[in-house]
Amino acid sequence: MIPQLDALLTAALAEIPSLTDDAGVEEVRLKYLGKKGSVTVLSSGMRDVPPDQKAAVGAKLNEARTGITEALEARKLALQSAAEAAEAAKIDLTLPSRSLPSGGLHPLTQVLDKAVHILRRMGFALATGPEVETEWHCFDALNTPGDHPARNESDTFYFDSGLLLRTHTSSVQVRTMTSQPPPIRIIAPGSAFRRDEIDATHLSAFTQLEGLYVAERVSLGDLKGTLEMFFKQLLGPKTEVRFRPHFFPFTEPSYEVDVLLHVAGQEPRWVEILGCGMVDPAVFQSICDKRGDDLYHPDKVMGFAFGMGLERLAMIQWGIGDIRHLIENDTRFLAQFA
């Protein structure tokens, strides 16, 4: 059997270098190593080999299989390399390269970065807090009674534990006052969640930016001057802003602020952008009760607070007519801002 195996190995090694494609390689593999291949057929005769020759014949059989297999693999790699070299030869290195599209920041990110930059220059520090809140931080501390509509399950996302998804980042203001003494001047950007019906001007999950300034002497004039300067720096010096009296449980007096929205092909319209006001003395009293001191006593400090939706700011800055465009991730829309 050994001479026959030597002859098969010699024949295979002579045949393999002349193969020109993968199909030929597979054909030769089956010819020698397949179920009906020459080497396989010979190996079935091992049972008839005398015991004293089995070791030598087995070694020769393995040598034949290994030799043919390695030769086939080497030929297959050589054919693959030749094919790749042929393809590479077709490349014209003198042709100009194809430019890749550049990415860009989402319009909300651009508005947030710019708003934070402006307010930081005006002396506001950045503050953060958890998105899952307690009722005390989100409502009780902010003078919002238990029967207020905002505390209803139809308006707020509650967990079975009694915790909730914050409806505003005012909870960050509360956490800052309970942990830091006055004076404080902070902004709190972040996500807020409400059970609003999604339409052209409302989302159930949105991005809010709130601000708080507390010191010994703070006036309504400080609030109006701060906001007017902020919007003119953010949206341009000709930005039109108006203040309308309103009611919020945590500020008194309270105002809503509108900015005139210009959308191509539409009549300009006022869009509510922000709620603000002077911090209600009841809020300061709640903070004192929580802290166990009188650093925030209404007779000692005054303050103003404001909160705005960044989606609305983006709509105004770029004349976006539908807030849903900001969450649909349509690259055709977003590419305008890259």
How does the SSE layout of this entry go?
Elements: H1 2-15, H2 22-33, H3 38-43, H4 54-89, H5 107-121, E1 125-126, E2 132-133, H6 135-138, E3 164-165, H7 170-179, E4 184-193, E5 205-215, H8 220-235, E6 241-248, E7 251-261, E8 269-279, H9 281-291, E9 302-309, H10 310-318, H11 331-334
Parallel strand pairs: 1-4
Antiparallel strand pairs: 2-3, 4-5, 5-9, 6-7, 7-8, 8-9
Low-confidence stretches: none
Shape: elongated
Known CATH architecture of the largest domain = 2-Layer Sandwich
Structural class: alpha+beta
State the domain count: 2
Residue-averaged pLDDT: 89
Distance between the termini: 75 Å
Strand content: 15-25%
What can you see in these coordinates?
With 338 residues, the chain is α+β, with helices and mostly antiparallel strands. It folds into two domains: 88 residues; 231 residues, BirA Bifunctional Protein, domain 2. The protein contains eleven helices and nine strands. A seven-stranded mixed sheet has the order 1-4-5-9-8-7-6, sandwiched between helices.
Summarize the entry for a quick read:
The chain has 338 residues and is an alpha+beta fold.
Key phrases:
2 domains, elongated, two-stranded antiparallel sheet, 338 residues, 41% helix, alpha+beta, 11 helices, BirA Bifunctional Protein, domain 2, seven-stranded mixed beta sheet
